[in-house]
Amino acid sequence: MSENIYTYGIIEQEDLEVATEGVAGAERIYTIDYRNLSAVVSDIDTTEPERTDEDVEAHNAVLQHVLEYDGGRTIVPMSFGMAFKSGRTLKGVLRGARRALRSTLNDIEGTIELGVKILTPADDELPQEDIRAAVTDQLTEVSINETENDLFTDRLIVNKSYLVDRKQRDAFDAAIDEIEERYDDGLILNYTGPWPPYNFVDIHIGAEQQGGR
Amino acid sequence: MFIVDDLLVKPFLSLLDILHTMALDEMYDTDAIRDEIKENRLLYEVGERSEDEYQRRKQELETQLGLAQQIQEQMRDRMEIKT
Lengths: 213, 83
Known about the structure:
The complex is a heterodimer of chains A (213) and B (83). Chain A has helices at residues 53-68, 87-108, 128-141, 169-182, 207-210, and strands at 4-12, 30-34, 37-44, 76-77, 83-84, 111-119, 145-148, 156-165, 188-195. Chain A is an alpha+beta fold and 213 residues long. In chain A, β7 and β8 form a beta hairpin. The longest helix of chain A has 22 residues, at 87-108. With 83 residues, chain B is an all-alpha fold. Chain B contains 3 helices and no strands. The longest helix of chain B has 32 residues, at 51-82. Chain B is elongated, with a radius of gyration of 19 Å. The two termini of chain B are 25 Å apart. The relative contact order of chain B is 0.11. The model of chain B has no long low-confidence stretch (mean pLDDT 81). At the A-B interface, loops of A face α2 of B.
């Protein structure tokens, strides 16, 4: 029986139903309200979902659907695996984190996150520093903020997340196209998103608030 | 005589233990395996690795990670008992 609640993220209070498959094959994605906030959720039969590729993709797909829903919604994303014992437990968590959630929703209003990874071809010796500087300068100009992520392989010369105003999305896309063209035969570009601003929200749900998870 | 022997042998044993632990640490470096898992995924996403290849390597690395975590845990327990 599905009694537990899997949570994808938090939006301004709104009744929302998203037409996509959720984590653990959930068919219905809906919202649970707490005052002027709504959690985007689905039912699940565990509080400790296994982190499989399929479910991580489903988690991201739901967030992207909400992000693009009817002209766009702002959503504070939860990391994968936030499942609560019941709707009541979830409301308790929302009560505890309400202030932080409200202020984060205001901070990220109208923004999206875009991911940029640039790889050098295997066994290639390109002037990595120069390329990195040129590319990141160009992308910094069309973004609000950025975070440097882990360079987990020697071939990775850029791994950044950019916070971009929705209105600047086309300018960012154009900059990416230009970079792609410029380094056409040398570099491999992995451009992802739009994502909710995962790397630009900093909400910690404390142990006390998670009680009963 | 026993005490002298013990004193002479013990530091040597500890040094061996440390070297052994260092070697195991390198062999079962969980961060390095996690990096390889991410690299495998990225190479698949950019089309450098086929889905079969990606899945096979992913399984290998996940098994390796599970084993490394177990070994690291056992090594920590061993070090805690010693100190």
